[in-house]
Each structure stands twice: as C-alpha cells, then as structure tokens.
C-alpha cells in the first residue's frame, strides 16, 4: 500500500512537470494584459499513468482551452488556483467588479445527496494580492471576498446547501451571510446547475449577487468591513478540497467550471 502511494505521488509529479507550459510561473500573477474568459479546475485521469491529477484549463478570447499547472507557483500541496495581482482599469478609490457563471460536478454536492461533493470551500478574492514563490509551499495573501463552504466540511453541519461567508483575507476573518434569498427560503448552490455571480469590492466592503440560472432565485447583500482596508488591484479564485492539505490530490474526481469571466472597475 505504501509503495502504491509513493508510485502515485511520483507519477503525479512527473505528469504535471512534463505537461507544464514554460511560462507557467508566479510571473503569471502579473500578466494583466491576458485575463481568461473561461477557467476549469478538474481532477481526471492522465494518459497511461496510474493516477488521477488536478488540472487547470484556461481559455482566452478567440482561443481554445490551454492546459496549465493546477496553480501558478506549481506546488502540488496547494489547491487549484487562478489569479492576478493586477487588473485593467484599477485605481486607488475604485470598486472592482467580477462577473462570471459557475457550474460544478462532484464539488458542492446535491440537494438529494448531502454527503456528496469533495469541496472544503471555494474562495473568491478581490482587491487583493497573492504572495507566492515558484515551487515553494506556503505564502500569504490579502484582500476581500467570499468563502463558499460545503456544510459537510464544517463541524456539525450536514445540510446539502453551502454556507457562504464574507472573508477578510488580510486577517483571516469569516463573517457568515444569512443562508436565505430575497424570498426567505434557503438558498443553496449545488452541482450540475449554472449560477451567475456578480461581486463588487471597494476599500470598505463587499456586495454580492448570486442567481440560480434555472429558476431565477437571487441571493444578494452587502457587508461593510472597516479594516484593514482592501487597497490592492488583484483577484483570485480556486478550488480547495476536504483532504488534509486541501490540495484536492486525495479526493474523488471533480470539476469546477467558470465561464463568461470578466473583471472591471468603476
């Protein structure tokens, strides 16, 4: 058993290293001129090797999907990540806007199967900055955003809908958002459905709108956070799973699909 685990780990490292584009380094975080319109995080079989691996696919306007390492720093023990430390149109007193659609498979779970899904949580960082080094575990980050947890990943929770929290990434503070929509019913995000997200973050707070594209139900709100202020120009989002290091290396296969992604400022 130990030998098989070592073989799988070695195969994973070899496969990822062999398939990485040469430009995939932490310098990717500073590539403001190229922001994708579509991103997929997926764990799947890889060729003839006896192991499934986490991959990142990105598509840019007018192009096809390109396979990337699971994160720019190329650290296997980190989760899947896309991000930038800058964004076009940024200015000091402005509001950063992210809009996108998201659909998941075996990630958040389904209403009828509360124990399904491999998610720990899906973080969305805005007005932030990521500090990473190539091939080096660890690092820090700051900013504001959302942390979307699968309840089974939280102590004492078993409901099939997720818990959505506002997160101050600078100091690690989570602030729970009431799990209701404008009609007063539980609002949950589940696998197999498209949801539309619109997030606004300025120096002092965050506003969000999440719409279920099938039935049009909307969850929205605003949270003011006086500090530390969110003053950076970057953004990021990623997939963290329920394995011990949240890397998604030791969980079942899954997919997180982001499309129609756009970042802007006003």
Give a nutshell description of this structure.
The chain has 266 residues and is mainly β. 7% of the residues lie in helices and 43% in strands.
Task: Write up what this structure looks like.
- The protein is mainly beta and 266 residues long.
- It has a single domain (2-265), classed as Jelly Rolls (Sandwich).
- The protein is built from one helix and 14 strands, in the order αββββββββββββββ.
Gyration radius, to the nearest Å? Answer: 18 Å
* Global shape: globular
Strand percent estimate: 35-45%
Strand order of the largest sheet: 3-2-1-14-5-10-11-12
Main sheet makeup:
8 strands, antiparallel
Average pLDDT level: 87
- Quickly count the helices: 1
Q: Return residue spans where pLDDT drops below 50 for at least 5 consecutive residues.
A: 1-22
CATH topology: Jelly Rolls
For the record, what CATH class applies? Mainly Beta
CATH architecture: Sandwich
- List the secondary-structure elements in sequence, H or E: HEEEEEEEEEEEEEE
Structural class call reads mainly beta
